[in-house]
Design goal:
Aspartate Aminotransferase, domain 1, binds pyridoxal-5'-phosphate, single chain, 452 residues
C-alpha cells in the first residue's frame, strides 16, 4: 500500500507539472530524435530502475510529448480534453477489465451498452447494435466484412476465392479504406476509387455508371463507403443519393462518420447528417471532435443480429455464464478488448447532452470566426467555404508546407497542411472546444509572423 501511495503521488505530481508546463509552453519545442535519445535514456537494460529514477524519466517523457491539450495544438483531429473523461481513462487502466464477458467486465458491459444505445438513437437506428473497436480503421473494416458476408453467405465457410466482388469509395476517402482490401482477401482489383467533384464529394452519376458497368462485366458489387466529412477537405458525400443507388442495386451502404458524426449531438447542426440512418452501418471516432482521450472508435449497425451472426464462434472456455448480450466477445473480432466506452460515458454523464452541444457549437463558432478573420485579411485566402469546422486557407507568397514546418520547428503551434488540385493549403481544424476567439487570433498571429 505504501508503494501504491508513493507511485500515485508521483504520478499526480507529473500530471500537475505537465498541465502547468503545457499552459506556459504550448505545443513543444522541436527536438530531433537524436537529441531526445541523448536527453532521455530509452534503452531497456538488464538492470532494474529504482522508483525515483523511473518517475524522473516518466516526467521527462511527459514534458517532451507534443501537448495535444494546449492552446497551440491545431494538428489534425485530436485536441482539447474533458477532464473527467481523462480520469475515467486512467481509472479504466487501474480496473483493467477486458470487455469480452460480463464475468470479466461486469458493470462496464452495461456502460458500453448504454453508450451504444445513446449513439444508435442519435443516428436514428431503432433496434441496432454496436461494438467499440481498436481504432476507427478496424471498425470500418468490420463494416466491409459484414457487407461481404451478407452478399455471399458461403464466404464464411468457403472463402472468397474466385468471387468477383467489387466495392466503391471516393478518392477523398480515408487512406485506410484501401488497406482493407489486402486484409479482407478481396484484392486491389476489388476497389473502385471514384473521382470527386470540385468540393471533394463523391460523384453519384459516376458511382451508378460504374456499378452498371461492373454488373455488365460479371462483377458482384456489394458495398459503398460514403464519408462525412472527408479527411482533407471535409466534404460531405451525398448520402441521400448514394443510399438510393445502394438500395436499387442491393449494396450495403456504410458511412464513415469518423469526423462528422459528432454533429448529431447538436440540435443546430444535426441536419447536416440527415439521411445517415439510411446507411446500414456507421463508424465513429469519438476521440476526435468529442475531446475524449484516444482511442474511442465505435461501429454502429442497423441490424441487431449481424455482428453476432458474423463473429460468434464457440469458445466454452470463455463464454460460461450469462446471456449472449452480456458477452460481447461473441460479436467482436477481438477476444480481449479495451474498455473504451467508459471515458465516453463519463464525458456524456458529466456534461449531459446540453453542455456537449454547447461544446460542439463552440467548435463550429470558432471555425466561423476563423473564416471571418481570413476574409478580412488581404494576405489570407480561403480556398473553400467550409461546411463544417475545417478551414482551408493560404497565405499570400508563403507555401503552406513551409509555414507549418517552421511553426513546428520553432515550437509555436502545430498545424498541418493539405493538397488538392489547386496546390497546398493550411488546414485549421477547430476541434478543441476549449479554444476561444483569442486563441484563434493567436493562431493567425503566428501564421502571419512566422519566419520561414
Ligand atoms: C474521414 C476519416 N475517417 C477515418 C479516419 C481515421 O480515424 P482514426 O484516426 O481515428 O483511426 C480519419 C482520420 O483522420 C478520417 O479523417
Amino acid at each position: 500500500m505504501k508503494n501504491i501511495k508513493t507511485m500515485l503521488d508521483k504520478t499526480v505530481n507529473i500530471i500537475n507539472t505537465y498541465y502547468d508546463h503545457s499552459e506556459k509552453n504550448p505545443v513543444l519545442k522541436y527536438k530531433s530524435p537524436a537529441t531526445l535519445k541523448k536527453e532521455i535514456n530509452l534503452k531497456i537494460s538488464q538492470k532494474w530502475t529504482p522508483v525515483n529514477a523511473l518517475f524522473n524519466e516518466l516526467e521527462k517523457i511527459a514534458l517532451n510529448s507534443p501537448k495535444t491539450n494546449s492552446k497551440g495544438f491545431f494538428n489534425l483531429l485530436v485536441g482539447g480534453e474533458i477532464l473527467p473523461a481523462v480520469m475515467a481513462e486512467m481509472l479504466a487502466a487501474v480496473l483493467n477489465n477486458t470487455m469480452h464477458t460480463y464475468k470479466s467486465a461486469g458493470i462496464h458491459i452495461l456502460i458500453e451498452q448504454e453508450v451504444i444505445k445513446f449513439f444508435l438513437k442519435k443516428i436514428g437506428y431503432k433496434n441496432g447494435d454496436g461494438i467499440f473497436g481498436p481504432g476507427w480503421s478496424l471498425t470500418n473494416m468490420i463494416a466491409l466484412v459484414l457487407a461481404r458476408n451478407e452478399k455471399i453467405s458461403s464466404i464464411k465457410k468457403l472463402g472468397i476465392a474466385g468471387k468477383k466482388l467489387v466495392w466503391y469509395t471516393s478518392d477523398q476517402a480515408h487512406y485506410s479504406t484501401e488497406k482493407f482490401i489486402s486484409v479482407t482477401g478481396l484484392g486491389k482489383d476489388a476497389i473502385r476509387i471514384l473521382p470527386t467533384d470540385d468540393k471533394g464529394k463523391m460523384n453519384t452519376k459516376i458511382l451508378e455508371e460504374t456499378i452498371i458497368s461492373d454488373l455488365r462485366h460479371g462483377y458482384i458489387p456489394f458495398f459503398i463507403n460514403a464519408t462525412v466529412w472527408t479527411t482533407v477537405l471535409w466534404a460531405f458525400d451525398p448520402i441521400e443519393k448514394i443510399a438510393k443507388i445502394a438500395k436499387k442495386y442491393k449494396l450495403r451502404l456504410h458511412t464513415d462518420a469518423a469526423l462528422g458524426g459528432w454533429a448529431l449531438l447538436s440540435k443546430k447542426h444535426k441536419h447536416l447528417l440527415k439521411w445517415i440512418e439510411q446507411s446500414n452501418s456507421v463508424s465513429r471516432s469519438l476521440h476526435k471532435m468529442m475531446n475524449v482521450p484516444l482511442l474511442a472508435a465505435v461501429l454502429l449497425v442497423k441490424d441487431p443480429n449481424t455482428l453476432y451472426e458474423n463473429f460468434h464462434e464457440n469458445a466454452d472456455y470463455l463464454f460460461q455464464m450469462d446471456e449472449k448480450n452480456l458477452n460481447p466477445g461473441n460479436k467482436s473480432i477481438q477476444c480481449g478488448r479495451r474498455n473504451d466506452a467508459f471515458k465516453v460515458w463519463t464525458a456524456l454523464k458529466y456534461l449531459g447532452e446540453k453542455w456537449y452541444e454547447k461544446r460542439i457549437n463552440q467548435e463550429f463558432g470558432n471555425a466561423k470566426y476563423a473564416v471571418s478573420v481570413i476574409k478580412k485579411d488581404r494576405n489570407l485566402t480561403l480556398v473553400l467555404e467550409p461546411e463544417c469546422i475545417n478551414v482551408c486557407f493560404q497565405v499570400k507568397g508563403k507555401p503552406a508546407s513551409k509555414i507549418c514546418e517552421a511553426l513546428d520547428k520553432q515550437g509555436l503551434i502545430k498545424v498541418s497542411y493539405g493538397k488538392r488540385k489547386w496546390e497546398e493549403f493550411i488546414r485549421l481544424i477547430t476541434v478543441n472546444a476549449d479554444m476561444t476567439k483569442k486563441d484563434i487570433d493567436n493562431f493567425f498571429k503566428h501564421i502571419k509572423n512566422v519566419k520561414i
